[in-house]
Design brief:
Blueprint: H1 16-32, H2 37-50, H3 60-83, H4 89-110, H5 117-136, H6 139-150, H7 155-162, H8 166-190
Helix pairs in contact: 1-2, 1-3, 1-4, 1-5, 2-3, 3-4, 5-8, 6-7, 6-8, 7-8
């Protein structure tokens, strides 16, 4: 939506990596093998474009909440399609709440207490940068970082989820965080996110 610092409007596509990260956290192992998160995100982006006129907010925070709601509906539709279950509004609200929690954990990784519009805009940029940096990690490192820090699993549970021992998961977590810091520092120093 509107970048609060500069007044520019960001297209929905600018949030692709952020949305993909949230989808990966929701699909889990039972649908992860059947569904490509990029396909779910593409559908959510299409849905957002179709419903664009319904957005009534003014801030990036409201825009992100609106996108997460659309994403929750899209993920729920994906679950229904693959689980052959009827529509469950409670499940959709639960998905939206889980997406909000994952997003809050993602913001927590940034550890920013920012309140002014320009600081919120910077945090939005940092969220996008973090989502892109996570996507650039080797898959095993990315998965354990996401499961532990963004999904809230213990290291032992994250290890089990990826089929590794706890010491192996600790090593992946350590290397993943180290690489994540390097990627974020490189992007911050270079002044761009490419």
């Amino acid at each position: 939506m509107r970048n609060e610092a500069s007044g520019e409007i960001r297209p929905v596509e600018a949030y692709r990596d952020y949305l993909r990260l949230l989808v990966r956290l929701q699909l889990g192992s039972h649908l992860g093998a059947k569904v490509d998160p990029s396909d779910v995100v593409q559908q959510a982006i299409l849905n957002a474009h179709e419903a664009r006129a319904q957005f009534r907010g003014m801030t990036e925070t409201e825009w992100l909440a609106w996108l997460r709601a659309i994403l929750a509906n899209t993920v729920a539709a994906t679950f229904r399609r693959y689980d052959a279950q009827r529509r469950d509004p409670g499940r959709e609200r639960s998905l939206e709440a889980e997406l909000d929690r994952s997003s809050s954990r993602l913001e927590g990784l940034l550890a920013a207490d920012q309140t002014s519009p320009s600081e919120r805009a910077v945090r939005g940029e940092e969220l996008m940068r973090l989502a892109r940096a996570l996507a650039d990690l080797p898959e095993d490192q990315r998965r354990v970082v996401e499961l532990h820090y963004l999904k809230g699993l213990t290291v032992a549970d994250a290890a089990e989820a990826i089929g590794r021992t706890r010491p192996a998961a600790v090593g992946l977590l350590f290397r993943g965080l180290k690489r994540l810091r390097e990627l974020l520092a490189d992007r911050r120093d270079s002044g761009h996110d490419s």
